[in-house]
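Report of the visiting student (M.T.), summer placement. My assignment was to run the structure pipeline on a short list of targets and document each run. The first record concerns Membrane protein.
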Amino acid sequence: MLTIWSWVFLLLGAATCALIAVDVRRRPQHMAIMNVTWPITGLYIPVLGWWVYQKMGRAASADESHQHGDHEHHGSHHHHGDKPQWQGVFVSATHCGGGCTLGDIIAAPLATALGVTLFGSHMAGHFLLAFVAAYVFGILFQYLPIREMGEGSPRRALVNAIKADTLSLIAFQAGMVLWMMIATPLFLGGRMEATTPEFWFMMQIAMLVGLLTSWPANWLLVNRGIKHAM
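After the run finished, the structure tokens were exported:
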């Protein structure tokens, strides 16, 4: 039964990702990195991710922008600068989650294929490799929009990216690790093998848990002015 549910949610996640990807091609995001982030968000928030994208991230199409004008706003999905702070913080969390998720998707098969261990533990080895990959992509996802906005030199942009994303990334990964430590013995027979649909279903849930645990960190960073709400 778990296998069936795993395939159902993984396919729904893939469909949500594809649907958002098609839509962002027609409605490019103001920040280019969000054209990647929103489809990734759909991977771990099946179906509901489409509603979240429409509510908090969907940009106006070229035709709509021309029809309504640059200074006229009709509906929340046409203009996001005036969204409530909780929504801006949530989108910032998805931005962090995009880099983390991409890193985890790349690291998990590598950890399985290479048999990475830490202190003799396959699970700990997986978590270490996943954290390193997630950190690299997370910082990259933060660095690119900072450079896109022209805020300082490449070095300054990198420093600001590290300041803005480290805490939220750690919070995201902590949520993922917590869930996988629970799910691995309960549902995966004690082994984290990135070759089964059950593993990826548990990772899908872990990414959602990570999004939730990173929300308070993003709220703190935004309130302190270290990170911008999106």
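Helices lie at 2-26, 34-44, 48-56, 62-68, 85-114, 122-148, 154-187, 197-223. The chain has one domain: 2-69+80-223. I thank the supervising group for their guidance throughout the placement.
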